[in-house]
Amino acid sequence: MQSIIFMGTPQFSVPVLEGLIDKGYEIKAVVTQPDKKVGRKQKLTKTPAKIAAEKHNILVYQPVKLSGSNELEELMNLHADFIVTAAYGQFLPTKFLNSVKIAAVNVHGSLLPKYRGGAPIQYSLLNGDQETGITIMEMVKKMDAGDMYAQKAIKIEKDDTAGSLFEKLSYLGRDLLLETLPKIADNTVVKTAQNPDNVVFSPNITKSQEKITKEMTAKEANNLIRALNPDPGAFMMVQGQRLKVWKAEVLDKKTNLEPGRLVNNKKCFAISFANKTVLNLLVLQPAGKKRMDVKNFANGQGSKFKPGDKIVDD
């Protein structure tokens, strides 16, 4: 069985790595991002890929920047058959891509050429897409621009979040990669070039994109909530305080209230948005508090408002 240098960081990468191990591939090293301080206590935390690698006693590299590092030379000297990346998070130098015996392969969470970049799953939700999927592609220096070895789509369900799609796509990516690697190795795979006219980019989500505004329709706000769940979470400003929204639903009803007003707070918390649309918040998190369902919120903090009151700050 061929040897692999595996490169990944978040939980998305773990099923892919485990699948390669279970299939009998020799994992010569796992390359992942450096440990980070997480949470209020700033606890130094290992990446999910590192945790998985250590469980299998696999050599781990964590360069801050791979290009020009001592780790790069060591990795090239491993003379692996494949490089396999799955949400690693850094560009790879061309000389490294060319150092392997067979191919450098990426497991990408979109139907390329749509959504090149670091947040393809989030953008599929933000834009209200009906489907997403996995592309197994050849790695080149240009971001997510290599020829495609294989592709498979799945339907986006109405209750899917970034978290649920990450999980679904990680297993889809594992299975599609394991089907494709032998074809790459024996040169029976048919590569397909990406159509440059259909390229869409999905850059990493910025802080400014996390805010729910009353200029959005209820559907647009709900898409944002789903796209940013479980991390970092979407929020709206209510009387100068952040109110995070983890789950919501678009109601069929219309309203004549101007956007940002309370429509109903009887065992719910429904707010007017653009084009007379209405969004009911289902799971909320007021500033400094834990998550709560809408019933508890409506009986507590939400009870001080009455229908017609302004909820969403300008």
TrEMBL record:
Limits of the Formyl transferase N-terminal domain: 4-180
Domain (Formyl transferase C-terminal): residue spans on this chain: 204-301
Binding positions for (6S)-5,6,7,8-tetrahydrofolate per the UniProt entry: S110, L111, L112, P113
Example GO molecular function: methionyl-tRNA formyltransferase activity
UniProt keyword annotations, A-Z: Protein biosynthesis, Transferase
Keyword flag Protein biosynthesis: yes
The UniProt record lists the keyword Oxidoreductase: no
EC number(s) reported in the record: 2.1.2.9
Catalysed reactions, semicolon-separated: L-methionyl-tRNA(fMet) + (6R)-10-formyltetrahydrofolate = N-formyl-L-methionyl-tRNA(fMet) + (6S)-5,6,7,8-tetrahydrofolate + H(+)
PANTHER family: METHIONYL-TRNA FORMYLTRANSFERASE, METHIONYL-TRNA FORMYLTRANSFERASE, MITOCHONDRIAL
Function in brief: Attaches a formyl group to the free amino group of methionyl-tRNA(fMet). The formyl group appears to play a dual role in the initiator identity of N-formylmethionyl-tRNA by promoting its recognition by IF2 and preventing the misappropriation of this tRNA by the elongation apparatus.
Protein name listed in UniProt: Methionyl-tRNA formyltransferase
Organism (species): Candidatus Lactobacillus pullistercoris
Taxonomic lineage: Bacteria, Bacillati, Bacillota, Bacilli, Lactobacillales
